[in-house]
Amino acid sequence: MQEYKGWKEFFEKDIDKKLSFFQKNGNVFDVIYSQQFTITILERLFKLSDKIRTIAKSKKGTDFLQTILSDKRAMLFFSQPSTRTFLSFLNACHILGIKVSEIRDSRTSSEIKGESLEDSIRTFSSYVDLIIIRHFNENFAEKASWLLNSYTNRSIPVINGGSGKDQHPTQALLDMYTIYRSAKTKGGIDNKKVIMVGDLKRGRTIRSLSRLLALYKNIEIIFVAPKKFQVKDDITKFLDSNNVKYNKTENLEEVLGIGDILYFTRLQNEYDIGNESEDIDYSKYYFTEKHLNMIKKDAIIMHPFPRRNEISFTVDNDPRALYWKQSRNGMWIRAALIIYLFQREDLAMNFQS
Ligand code: NCD
Q1: Are 328 and 87 in contact (CB under 8 A)?
Q2: Distance between CA atoms of 261 and 289, rounded to whole angstroms?
Q3: pLDDT in single tens digits along all 353 residues of the chain
Q4: Which of 44, 125, 127, 179 counts the highest number of beta carbons within 10 A?
């Protein structure tokens, strides 16, 4: 396959050195890494999400929201399975009046005829104003953004909707938004103890979330995982250099009682190369009814979904189980993010119901 000149050099740079490439005029332009978000941007997005969901409560408001980006078109290119990320982006676009095209299966695109992904991206960019990508290849969204910014004069925003084992920045936004909403009555996000459970080695949601949590004061993260699937160095190094306290353990019950935020994830066995998932007893990392009285009264229980057995159905009606709200929050924060990317925040914030 051909390769565009310059990609390799760009890609190999430290992430911190690349972040400005995804910005324009001081604003985030392409959403590739969660490190692009500062507290200021996060809080703006949280407030904007709160505002648009309030506006959406009336028909007048819902009709108004559909005018905010009615002049824009978006492409959803999701070649890796997705339910929530796809549907919440699609519905975020509907809320804002954006017209959407989609490819969910590469077999229906010219990829099957040997077209490079680069040419597919350039083609999409000829038709739309925003591309949202989920792809099995790590870094594919980054490559798309690099290509459009470096080689074309139609550099439209690209949003990473999950790329390989790597990052899932908009999932981290909705996770943080969920924490923000629940922490409003609990002194804010600072000083929270966060317990992350599961396949932390290959789970991309926890990689992105850890980076956003690190922006807040006095956060402590406890990584609970089988030894084989413990969090990797990329995260621990990042936390070390940002002075975030963390611990690792294999024993869930030992730490359940100290968590303010309990974040469960599934085994990511689609990334198995051999049969590394097979001899793991993952049931040690399941949260069931019996655990409800071991956790803090005001703790919250989260899961990015899809869930298998990590949290039993019998936990769903406990007021601390926030995962269903968490999914819905994804639609609102993604709508807010898209408004922000097109710099139409004032339109929404100034709306009087
Ligand atoms: C996550 C993902 O795709 O990384 N799902 C999601 O987007 N909500 C988590 C997962 O697949 O386990």
Answers
A1: no
A2: 17
A3: 788 999 999 999 999 999 999 999 999 999 999 999 999 999 999 999 999 999 999 999 999 999 999 999 999 999 888 999 999 999 999 999 999 999 998 777 777 788 898 999 999 999 999 999 999 888 999 999 999 999 999 899 999 999 878 889 999 999 999 999 999 999 999 999 999 999 999 999 999 999 999 999 999 999 999 999 999 999 999 999 999 999 999 999 999 999 999 999 999 999 999 999 998 999 999 999 999 999 999 999 999 999 999 999 999 999 999 999 999 999 999 999 999 999 999 999 999 98
A4: 179
- Catalytic positions are 84-85, 113, 134, 168
Ligand 1 midpoint to CA 328 (Å)? 14
Ligand 1 pocket at CB < 6 A: 84-85, 162, 168, 171, 204-205, 265-266, 304-306
Give distance in angstroms: CA of 59 to centre of ligand 1. 32
Rounded CA-CA distance 223/263 in Å is: 10
**160 strand-pairing partners:** 133
Residue with tokens 């050195």: 17
Residue 203 and residue 265 in contact, taking contact as beta carbons nearer than 8 Å: yes
Using the mean position of ligand 1's atoms as its centre, give its distance from the Cα of residue 35 in Å: 19
How far is the C-alpha of 313 from the C-alpha of 185, rounded, in Å? Answer: 27
* Residue 252: half-sphere exposure toward Cβ, Cα within 13 Å: 23
